[in-house]
Amino acid sequence: MKVLFATGSVATANLCGTGAEITVEPLVFSGSTNPAVTLTAKQSELFCQAAAVTGSSVSTCRVLGFTGWNVCTDAGCQVFRGDVDIDTVLLEAVQTEITAEVFSHIVEETTRLLSSNDACESDDTTFVESTCDGNIVGSDDPTQVHYDVAHDVSGCWKTKQRDNNCYNYGNDILTNTFAQPGRRDFDQGTGLCKHSDRPCMQNTCEDVKKGAIADGLTWVGTELPTELPEVGHYVSLHIWPNSNFHWLRMDADKKWSHKPGGSPVKNVDNDGQTITNPATQDFSPWTQQCGYMHTVPSQIVAGPSVQVQV
């Protein structure tokens, strides 16, 4: 059994008790991986002093955007949020690795969390590793596309949560590569960018749409789909201007679900509301809803894959 996140004084002691390097990852992006920064010796000292006296992290109802600091050593990881002393150290550590827009968002959210009354259940973040290798493809039958984390693509959205993002989930294709529009993660072919390019496409509606079309998706338009397609399913594209992209997926009940980056799959927005209209609900700071596209999982994947039977 592999614990990806832990909480409490024991976990903090494991982080700070060995003298190992400490890395911090702000849990903030959806489409791309989060930056990981190694703390300096002084930052590590200040962090450990603060962490030694802090309690468990406060809860957050936010689905998209900053949801905490993932702090790791070789001994494991722990998520922190809602502590001003820890925030001060870690904000300084990551400031040069992120844009001004992203930094401003994190500052705003850390400030809100200091006085937050959010009361949300914590996600189960203890996972048992299972065989979820290669391309695992969801159903082409739109009536079989469900918000069902335990069974969708053999339950791999949970067991391989950290390795797949919103674009993987939106297409219902597990690759364990944090797929990028235009990079051709799904068929291993030649895409619009190299795998080393960061980002693959610029974070604008037109550029990300162009990358998705290169992968095999088709543009539908800006009007909310109200019926299921004959084959495949619809996705909704959202942009955090100058920062990141995000995708949502229309399920068989005509409601929407999504996977914010390496975080758990959700079927609610930042207000905790069931998603019925992606264009009008709260997915801030992804404030620009570009429109809708159509994807057929088995046609997107041209390389070796496992088609999930329903």
Descriptive notes:
- There is one protein chain.
- With about 300 residues, the chain is an alpha+beta fold.
- The protein has two domains: about 1-115, no CATH class; about 130-305.
- About 25% of the residues lie in helices and about 20% in strands.
- The strands form four sheets. It has a five-stranded antiparallel β-sheet with strand order 9-13-10-11-12.
- Helix 3 (about 85-95) packs antiparallel against helix 4.
- The chain is globular, with a radius of gyration of 19 Å.
Index terms:
310 residues; alpha+beta; 4-stranded antiparallel sheet; 8 helices; 14 strands; globular; disordered N terminus
Structural class: alpha+beta
Total strands: 14
Number of helices: 8
User: How many domains is the backbone divided into?
Assistant: 2
For the record, give the distance between the C-alpha atoms at the N and C termini, rounded to a whole number.
28 Å
Strand content: 15-25%
Strand order of the largest sheet: 9-13-10-11-12
Task: Give the overall pLDDT as a whole number.
Answer: 88
Radius of gyration: 19 Å
Helix content: 10-25%
Order of SSEs: EHEEHEEHHEEHHEHEEEEEHE
Shape: globular
Largest sheet: 5 strands, antiparallel
Q: Uncertain segments of ≥5 residues (pLDDT<50)?
A: 1-10, 124-129
